[in-house]
Please model this.
Amino acid sequence: MHIHILQKALTIVDEYEIAVNDRVRFVARDEGIGTYLYTTSNKQVICIFKTWNILLPNYRIVIHDANIPNNDKPVYFLTQSYCKNVYRCQWANDLYLIYAHKGLKYSVYKNGEQVAGISEERWTSFKEDGFRLECNS
Model:
């Protein structure tokens, strides 16, 4: 599965299009108090709220879609090590770790097994910047 997150440039608020296997499936917008993820039919799926813990960014993710399992509790995405660029997220019985590498690349592990790689595009055009996520499934 390929996920491409494109940030629209030259907009008043941060706005993103999220394509899954080259088909736009979601839109995300920063609405001041948080970032909200919508389907292309404008149904709210997820809200992401940034919090701070001793100057480290953390995120609280609230899931509004009944089709997503374990949507009854918020998910916390935490900075595990700012110096080593390691982030963690516990969702249900799964532990996700994200490791940053040189060159704007990241590895995503689920319960100790690598499941995805992320590459960030430094700059693509005046229209958009983006991330590419390659997943095992």
Summary: The first strand starts at residue 2 and ends at 8. The chain is about 0% helix and 65% strand. The chain has a mean pLDDT of 84. Residues 107 and 124 are 22 Å apart (CA to CA).
